# Entry
Amino acid sequence: MPVNLPLPNPSELKPIAGFMLGIAEAGIKKPNRKDVLVMTFVPGTEVAGVFTQNRFCAAPVQVCISHLEAQTETKKIQAMVVNTGNANAGTGEEGLQNALKTCVALAADLQLEPLQILPFSTGVILEPLPLEKIIAAMPRAIANLAEQHWFAAAEAIMTTDTQPKAASLTLDTPQGQINMTGICKGAGMIHPNMATMLGFIATDAGFAPGLLQQLTREAADLSFNAITIDGDTSTNDSFIVVATGQVAPIIQNQDDPLYALVSEALITLAKQLAQMIVRDGEGATKFITITVQGGKTAQECRLVAKAVAHSPLVKTAFFASDPNLGRILAAIGYAGIVDLDVRQVQLWLGDIWVAKNGGRNPNYHEADGQAVMQAAEITVKIDLGRGSATQTIWTCDLSHDYVSINADYRS
Amino acid sequence: MPVNLPLPNPSELKPIAGFMLGIAEAGIKKPNRKDVLVMTFVPGTEVAGVFTQNRFCAAPVQVCISHLEAQTETKKIQAMVVNTGNANAGTGEEGLQNALKTCVALAADLQLEPLQILPFSTGVILEPLPLEKIIAAMPRAIANLAEQHWFAAAEAIMTTDTQPKAASLTLDTPQGQINMTGICKGAGMIHPNMATMLGFIATDAGFAPGLLQQLTREAADLSFNAITIDGDTSTNDSFIVVATGQVAPIIQNQDDPLYALVSEALITLAKQLAQMIVRDGEGATKFITITVQGGKTAQECRLVAKAVAHSPLVKTAFFASDPNLGRILAAIGYAGIVDLDVRQVQLWLGDIWVAKNGGRNPNYHEADGQAVMQAAEITVKIDLGRGSATQTIWTCDLSHDYVSINADYRS
# Structure
């Protein structure tokens, strides 16, 4: 039951020059399901990525980090492979070998070096990767490679997602038209810490080496790292930006006027994709924006926003459309700001001023709060009254369907 | 649907010499419901308490802390009053005045000073305390005072609890028989930080001033601070120990041989009461013990145990009796130990060794994990392989009923 999440229109997803996608059925977990995606890009393409901070980070994540570090000018990353149905996490040394063998096989098929491949997995943790099935499917995915396959690729990486997530953006610049298209997946175990479950953006803009990595980190912090569904940071979070440089001149540094245009567009697209994950959060019926302002630091604003966003009591109140807003105050109070003066705290629900100077606003009428709670999209604004920092987090409610989905996920 | 939580037998709850309880109906939230409890104790009684660390701590908690600090040898705490149905939290300056007025009224009824009263409230946050109703009910509660009213008192402090929680313990010592009886309440917003929602233990043992406070803190850390239901730290958590000193000699210090006996018994009773709260956790169908060993510090063991205990994905897997144990590894990985070497991590479910050296144990068979998951009481043991510290946390699963209860709580 996604919240205001329209199905992407395949014809509106812009192909990115120099970037191809191919899908195949490997039969990893379910029959008749496209579950392997191969992506390739032209030589000279710049690739940047950020990954989960979970200490049990999956084998493919470990390989991605190592291959990105090992890139040289002449041997850059040129392909990626994704499987769903199995996370290849909590699989120890054997899992690492399996992730590497995936790269070896795809490299042989594409006449590349294994170091030029990034592998990704998503699905169940603690189960051995069905390596043979994936390797057998790769030639079929390669045969399917085309620049037009974004929609099918978004479908191929889904797990508990109810629909594929993809978006495009076109930017008119003095140097010509630049395109960006992105896909992502994720609906549960979503509390990204550096990136989300899986997110890929490709652009035909070009970036000098290194510059894209910095921008990718910034975009992740403002998008995928600003969402949470259940507070569970995945073992497999990966966010990758690929810049093929097929149109317009290569952006050399942050002072390049093109950088401001392209980076803003990239951040906009990343936010849009990240919000799609929340809109399709497991069992979600509400899309909730939590803005915390008036903090001493962005970090403490984020602490408060996350405490509110993770509280099962706040989330169930949103599910019930019940303005039981004392639960929000309780979460602000335990968020971890030890010297918080609650007499300076203000709380708004939509435009309704609910808590004034730490207590109930005498002018607050519950009927007004109730009216805001009925909507599918709700904004919570909290002012800590102790500084000028601000942070926004997007989350969803906690419904019966969340419990059903996660109690049934493997069956 | 509490998990192995027998109804206390009123006749087995020992009266504590010098400690009386009286209940009354104030009609705070629901009609025909005992919702006010008054407790009084003889002069010379020692009282100690620990309270929530939530910055939005409720008005009565603020008054308790201040009255406990203001005690003198001649003007010690001699009575307590509890109301359910309203937490008097997030109520600002007016809430503080209402908590103080409760003390003034009870002090007048009992011919004490207001400073000798501790007030407690539990229920909905952000709503004004119905002061007049509570004050009107207090004389009826006083008229009801008796040493035998523990069971009725446990009933009177319930909110979403499905049954009253109470236990007694008798200790034979060389100085004679010592009795302890405790009651507590709480089923949601349970992640105590210093204490739980409301817990009261009384004993006829005696303690020198100061000694009881230290023991109360220690007992809270090993009991109420070691439980979590939903990770939401309440605004009203309070744990109070009252020692009337009516039997046996006053315990002067920790070297007194009686101290070891009495403190061990008190901690045992506190753990029993705290576990009752988990067994009656909102929607609970499983009682889960999480022991983390092999940590460098107890604090990091607690961090890992709490991450596992709070994960909605772990909790829904327990609800489903589904050994989807990779979710536990994911929670260990994001708990916050940045230098955790996952190759040293072991995981057991009951007696079944599931994850060995950070990966799936080759000898693990899912049928064995499945068998453990079916039970109503489940033990998870995690070895971090980096030290000798250990911590145990008790929690419950996350079920459809948790969502129902919290989506409907105010209606």
Notes: The radius of gyration of chain B is 22 Å. Chain B touches chain A through 70 residues (CB under 8 Å). The mean pLDDT of chain B is 92.
